[in-house]
């Protein structure tokens, strides 16, 4: 169940629309006549004249249900009554009309924002409040929540031209986005489907602030197509797509190594194990031999570097005694 509040600038045209739709059924009214939309509009206007200066004196809300849901008229009246009460629209005129012209059943709820005592009913943030109330009622009456757009059950033929274009743009982006890694790629592929992309820049700089999409004569901001299709939302989705591709690569490599034929792969693994075991044994043997050679070389170096503690093997000319004798001779010649 979802809620949507739309402008009701002309209560006459609003009443004509909700009452004259094929299959329209007036479920309940309060303070207005229901058998003729003209009389209904006159009753609304008569009470609105209690506060003639009040702009936007009429509320028009649409409450839509999932296509698979067909609540009884009694339940629809109860839900609509709770909807108005929680919005604070009480003690006033209203009309609740059921429409079945689309694949999903929906209610049109029109109410006077000038109450029966001539007081103005507050409408601050009423659109946002309507969505929250719809979520509450969905849980309480165990209805199907509106989590995402369900493209498969969307009937474009029943939409007006504006809404149909918006949904076509939504479907195109939803289909192409997972296949694109950059914004440039997405823009190019959308253009091939007749959708032009326009960027909004910050002042005179090249910093992009927003994005919009144009199809035929209609243009929509990215967030109007869907909240996650704002410029920042698209950038985040593209970034996540790249990260997911990077994350998948090791998993795909790992999956390629997974066992396809357990018996055959076991024998391969066993054969490889024996082969590597032989290589390892050979390497260990070579390492042991190299270690023995290194130890022998170390011993040789130790012997060569060891300081001589005796002079038995030295010639007389290099001995300490010969050195001292030569020194005494030099001193004796110097004294003469």
From TrEMBL:
It comes from the Bacteria. It holds the Pfam family Relaxase. Residues 17-143 form the MobA/VirD2-like nuclease domain. This is Relaxase/mobilization nuclease domain-containing protein. InterPro entries: Endonuclease_MobA/VirD2.
């Amino acid at each position: 169940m979802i809620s949507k509040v739309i402008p009701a600038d002309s209560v006459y045209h609003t009443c004509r629309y909700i009452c004259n739709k094929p299959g329209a059924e007036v479920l309940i009214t309060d303070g207005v006549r229901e058998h003729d939309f003209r009389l209904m509009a006159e009753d609304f206007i008569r009470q609105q004249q209690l506060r003639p200066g009040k702009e936007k004196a009429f509320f028009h809300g649409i409450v839509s249900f999932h296509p698979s849901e067909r609540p009884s008229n009694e339940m629809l009246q109860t839900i609509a009554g709770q909807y108005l009460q929680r919005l604070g629209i009480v003690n006033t005129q209203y009309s609740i009309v059921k429409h079945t012209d689309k694949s999903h059943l929906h209610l049109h709820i029109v109410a006077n924002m000038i109450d029966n005592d001539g007081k103005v009913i507050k409408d601050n943030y009423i659109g946002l409040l309507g969505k929250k109330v719809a979520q509450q009622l969905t849980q309480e009456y165990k209805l199907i929540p509106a989590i995402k757009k369900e493209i498969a059950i969307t009937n474009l033929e029943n939409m007006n031209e504006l809404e149909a274009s918006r949904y076509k743009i939504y479907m195109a982006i939803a289909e192409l986005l997972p296949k694109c890694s950059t914004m440039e790629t997405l823009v190019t592929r959308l253009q091939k489907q007749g959708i032009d992309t326009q960027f909004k820049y910050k002042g005179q700089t090249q910093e992009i602030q927003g994005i919009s999409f144009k199809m035929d004569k209609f243009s929509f901001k990215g967030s109007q197509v869907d909240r996650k299709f704002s410029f920042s939302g698209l950038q985040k989705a593209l970034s996540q797509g790249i990260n997911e591709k990077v994350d998948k690569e090791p998993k795909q490599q790992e999956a390629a190594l997974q066992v396809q034929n357990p018996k055959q792969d076991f024998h391969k693994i066993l054969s490889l194990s024996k082969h590597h075991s032989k290589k390892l044994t050979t390497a260990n043997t070579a390492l042991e031999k190299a270690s023995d050679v290194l130890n022998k070389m170390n011993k040789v170096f130790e012997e060569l570097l060891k300081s001589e503690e005796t002079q038995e093997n030295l010639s007389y000319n290099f001995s300490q005694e010969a050195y001292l004798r030569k020194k005494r001779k030099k001193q004796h010649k110097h004294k003469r």
